[in-house]
Amino acid sequence: MPYCIYLRKSRADTEAEQRGEGETLARHEKALTSFAKQSELEVTAIYREIISGETIAARPQMQKLLSEVSQGLWDGVIVMDVDRLARGNSIDQGIISQTFLYANTKIITPTKTYDPANEFDEEYFEFGLFMSRREYKAINRRLQRGRTASIREGKYVSNKPPYGYERVRLKNNKGFTLAIVPEKAEIVRNIFQWYTQGIRQSDGTYKRLGTSLIARELNSRHLISSQGNVWTAQTIRDMLINPTYIGKLRWNWRPMKKRMVNGQVITERPRNNDLLLTDGMHESIIDEITFRTAGELMAKNKKRPVRGDQAVQNPLSGLVICQKCGRTMQRRPDTKNPALLICAAPTCDNHASYLHLVEQRILETVSHWSEGYLLKYHSETNLADASILQAEMTALQKTEEKLNRQLSKVFEAFETGIYDAAAFQTRHSVLKEQIEEIRQKQQNLQQSVDKNTESQMILSQLIPKIQSVASSYSQAASIQEKNNLLREIIHHIDYLKEVKGHGHEEEFIIIVHPNLPRLSSLPTT
Ligand SMILES: [Zn+2]
What we know:
Layout: E1 3-8, H1 11-18, H2 24-38, E2 43-49, H3 60-70, E3 76-78, H4 90-103, E4 106-108, E5 113-114, H5 119-152, E6 165-169, E7 176-180, H6 182-196, E8 199-200, E9 206-207, H7 211-220, H8 233-240, E10 248-251, E11 257-261, E12 264-268, E13 276-279, H9 288-302, H10 310-313, E14 320-322, E15 330-332, E16 340-342, E17 353-354, H11 355-379, H12 386-415, H13 421-472, H14 479-489, E18 490-496, E19 509-514
Parallel strand pairs: 1-2, 1-3, 3-4, 14-18
Antiparallel strand pairs: 4-5, 6-7, 8-9, 10-13, 11-12, 15-16, 16-17, 18-19
Helix pairs in contact: 4-5, 6-9, 7-8, 11-13, 12-13, 13-14
The chain binds zinc ion (ZN).
Zinc ion binds next to loops.
């Protein structure tokens, strides 16, 4: 019965290879092949796991091996050590030990053979895997503890120094710290100054720059960012909150988090709020007051809506139509005066208005709607009960059928000679006239039915909507929300202003077209 060899590198192997200890898999292959020869085990396949994945899902050779083991293809699998099969993941260890157990497949290492058929060995085997998992966890913990201890001592443990610093080895000591790179540190100081106080203008005044403008400024000076490419607003934001610049060290800020998705390990780096902050051995570039100011400004800035987004700033966005040229009117912000509502067409002579005045007028119009509609639709006589209208309709249909029957009898009488041509003509035209009259009545009745349906919809849908919009508009959470509310009840607004100048601000005309429920969307009865 055949045996196979399974080869996989461990993390320690990878590190040993970096020290120049030679290629691990080749070394293990040689060792296991000669071991198999000595033990007289017939090896017919060798699996080489090139990828050192932590899970079965990340190890294609292991997947293949397990599938073959479960089919009973192998008497035994030869490995350097049990933990080559599974390490660090208890679910995978369970899968592997169960597979070997049920298939009665041996695991053979140069020092010991694990035989699932042997009760004692089964325990030993599971224990072996368990031990390797515990050991793995202990190594990880030791590693983390070592790093945390280094940070507490003020050493810099990350590989990448922040912009403005370089990593230097500590003299007579293990580990690294940071040293200032003067010309880059000057850029860091500039960034903090531009953000907190501003950049000096030609007239001697200072103008504060946002993170995007700072990135643009640095790119225009052809400076290379810490990532070795262009500056982005995000790079600047990260720098402005990096406590390394005030001589601190942060740890656990964005720790790697691994989670399983469809059998794959996904690595994430979410921001952590309870980060560890300690004093570093390195010199600061920024003073604490400037750093705190930057942090406060950044927190404030977050709440500001994105610039240049019309839908967010204009409650009338997409609703007001220029009556002169048919274009959609736009909001134009002004630094000194309230924002305007303008027709952006250069050749159009429709005058602009203050946006808030137009908005106010629209709301006044809308607030009068509900009473107007209520009056109109309640007072109209066509607001009859639908069943009465239906009964009338049925009666008209019956009359029409009766008239049609009479008409066919007239034809019969003419054909059988009872009516002569003249009598037929008279009788026929009278009936035809009556039928036409009935059809006219039916059409009128249908119009009443439609109007009735429309009234019902306006009363039951539009009016409650108008009332709710009118009452909730002023408390809307955002401008976008206000725009949504208006769109619910307004189809569009025609706008016209023929005069301009001081004192004529309110002299614009608007026609607000309601967003009527569409009849065509109703199910027909
Ligand atoms: Zn226009």
